[in-house]
Amino acid sequence: MDMSQPIGVTPLDTHPDGPVGQPIDRVDGPLKVAGRAPYAYESREMQNPGYGFVVTATIAKGRIREIDTAAAERMPGVVHVLTHRNVPPQGEKKEQVGPLLTGTEIRHQGQPVALVVAESFEEARAAAAAIRVTYDEQAGSYVLADALQAAKKPEKARTPPDSSLGDFEAGFAAAPVRIDARYTTPVQSHAMMEPHATIAAWEGDKVTLITANQMPNRGQDALASVFKLPKDNVRLISRFVGGGFGGKLQPQADAILAALASKNLDGRPVKVALTRQQVFTTTTRRSGTVQRVRLGADRDGKLTAIAHESWSDTAPGDSFFETSANVTRSLYAAPNRLTAHRLANLNLLPASSMRAPGEAVGMLAFECAMDELAEALALDPIELRIRNEPAQDPEKHVPFSTRQLVPCLKEGARRFGWDARNPKPASVRDGQWMVGTGVAAAARLNPLQPAKARVRLAPDGTLTARMAMTDIGTGTYTILSQIAAEMLGVKVSEVRMILGDTADPMSSGSGGSFGAASSGSALYMACEDLRRQLLAKTDLNPDNAVFADNRITSGNRTASLRDLIGPGLEAEGEIKPGENEKKFSQYSYGAHFAEVGVDADTGEIRLRRMLGVFTGGRILNPKTARSQAIGGMVFGVGAALMEAIEVDPRTGSFVNHDLAEYHVPVHADLPEIDAVFLPELDDKANPLKSKGLGELGICGAGAAVANAVYNATGIRIRDYPLTLDKILEGFVAKETGQRRA
To answer: In principle, which of 36, 226, 482, 517 could form an S-S bond with 19, CB 3.0–4.6 Å?
Structure first.
């Protein structure tokens, strides 16, 4: 199906009590708690593997002068040492996936310089430590703030890097109320639960990789380029993935090196897992940003001018940039508008997508600037947002497919008790704690990607579906099983979902909040074909046919599915994005509300409660959807209060490259958090009428926390994260200012 027209009434609309929309438990849950859902490194499908351990560079820029592998090669159990001297020939870079060990140049700390393969992991690790590398080190550039003048306009990604409408400079200059603020966000790491890992083996000129990858088909294309093979000669299998957050969108060093070593070992399987430290230093990261937000408004709070400029960085030779200002283009109405992105090249590992790329960091800045404008206007922050609600997309000049930002704000305010808020900063105390509340909007682009699915209805009534989709812990197996069960009128337990193998029909993979909609729509279309085949074997009226309880019912007549299946039926389905993405502005929306306490002496910040109210089209499973939303909100709390890579400005090294020192929220940091969804169907989005949720929860969440901290203390921190040292500096500045006054 080409999504070029709105979708009419569907079987999902006419069967409200069916499996779709029910909060059922995850169908893969029993497998996981029983240890029968192996991650890539745990797979035993490939026998007698060698164990690889990656050796990485200890400088950020320069060249390898000498690499001494002799001692390592003599150590017990070692079967191979792979370096630039014996690496198999490789092809070209594609989508940030490039050949490795192809020369002596070092571009960032953590770059692979060798791989040791041994009969055990411990032997490989010990031998890796025995390799001696000497370098000719060169001076590098490691700090974004120092590279702003050299930053350039990046190449067009999905959208142009810059946009403008009206005359921003004139509109801003004429505005009676203005905000001009600079915000910074730090380098961050994906830090997912499962480290990157791969088992690779060759058979002739074909290679199979059991690997931790979010998008197997995309990885298949990239690795085919690196290995100089036809795409069909590369097979990726990623049945269960322990989190990704964007860090597994592309194959990383584990996959490339495992396959190259296996080729040198005549096809023997080689398994490689990155250490936790290597996940931080050898894969990808979220770029730091410097953002300037300027807002101009009349005295009634109507925005007349909006500008959002963002600087980010990536490795030399790479073109990825953080699209921090993109969400600003559609969020609020204003006649004069400007957004711009600039990209600097630093000698750090490449930057790439991390959960809600663009919106996650962009809204940390923009939604706090809106809070600052509300204070300058002496206007409630929610009222400011409502007064600037656009009637259509402000820059594209097309209607919204659906937009319930204002209802989310109003319902959230009611549930949270916003009317009891004291708008005066630093005016509410609870003993030692300064208490404050904050709000922020949430918005995330809702794209659709091409996907296919194949289904087979067996004589016993069980349905098997296959596609190269992945489940990265989000509940994909479950929601797809629900869709198939409802479309064919079978039980969820009678659906067998086979995912994560490029030998099956291509799929979008997991990422960008398009996974459920894209793969689910392809599955929907395949099941629609099966429904037509089954109905063709009856004389039932297809216009009012209902598939339920293993039967087809039309009026007062029924037919048993098993009587119609025969030796089995098969079908395929496909979804493609169409003109609707151009005809309508498609976003998921929400509103975040946060209450924090700040210790008046130590500056410690504690989240006290948090609420998110969202709309995401049809909610396929309220339980998994709520889990995704809360997970995103927790991600946002971490971005606001603690999550940051500390880059040594002298050497380009990541100082805190493990989970002992790279702080993320844990249970003790998170009290009462809730997420609710308002009813919505989006018939412009896809046949499911659903929207993406995986990244919506993080968008704006950190800004709500930061706005609450300001309300509690009267201290506005624009340099994320809001650590207690910055609060203490604010205390000192306030006290000094009061003394001077």
So the answer is: 482
Coil, helix or strand for 155?
coil
What is the per-residue pLDDT across 433-453, written as a single tens digit (0 to 9) for each? 999 999 999 999 999 999 999
Neighbouring CB atoms inside 10 A of 612's CB total: 29
Nearest to 694 by CA among 627, 641, 620: 627
**Residue 531, token pair as written in the block:** 């429904």
Tens digits of residue pLDDT in 23-82 = 999 999 999 999 999 999 999 999 999 999 999 999 999 999 999 999 999 999 999 999
**Helix extents (H) in 344-437:** 359-377, 381-387, 405-416
Q: What pLDDT, on a 0 to 100 scale, did the predictor assign at position 739?
A: 65
Structure tokens at 478: 């479950």
**Average pLDDT of every residue of the chain:** 97
The torsion of the CA quartet 243, 248, 249, 251, rounded to 10 degrees, works out to -150
**Dihedral sign from CA coordinates of 326, 517, 472, 98:** negative
Our CA angle for 13, 14, 20, nearest 5°, is 60
User: Tokens 């998994």 belong to which residue?
Assistant: 624
- The full DSSP string for 554-613 is ETTEEEEHHHHHTT-EEEEEEEEE-THHHHSB-EEEEEEEEEEEEETTT--EEEEEEEEE
Measured between alpha carbons, how far is 269 from 245 in angstroms, rounded to an integer?
28
Phi first, then psi: give them for residue 113, nearest 5 degrees.
-120, -15
Cα dihedral: 731, 732, 734, 740 (round 10):
160
Q: For the chain, give the number of residues.
A: 741
Cα gap 324→328, rounded to integer Å: 8
Residue 287 C-alpha from the chain's centroid? 14
Residue 306 three-state SS: strand
For 28, 244, 525, 558, 563, the CA distances from 484, given in Å and listed in that order, are: 16, 26, 10, 20, 19
Q: Please state, in angstroms and rounded to a whole number, the distance separating the CA atoms of residues 489 and 479.
A: 15
Q: What is the pLDDT of residues 160-190, one digit of tens each?
A: 999 999 999 999 999 999 999 999 999 999 9
Strands (E), 265-391: 270-273, 289-297, 303-314, 336-345
- pTM as predicted: 0.97
Cα distance between residue 22 and residue 393, in whole Å: 33
Give the DSSP H/E element, type plus range, for residue 13: helix 11-14
Nearest Cα neighbor of 555 from 538, 577, 578, 534 is 538
- Active-site residue list: 695
Judged against a pLDDT cut of 90, whether residue 15 lies above it is answered with no
Residue keyed to tokens 């609600």: 389
**Helix, strand, coil share (%) of the chain residues, nearest 5:** 30, 25, 45
Q: Is the torsion defined by CA of 255, 110, 191, 222 positive or negative?
A: negative
**Residue whose C-alpha is closest to residue 371's, from 722, 610, 707:** 707
User: pLDDT at position 672, please?
Assistant: 86
Side-chain-side CA neighbours of residue 466 (13 Å): 13
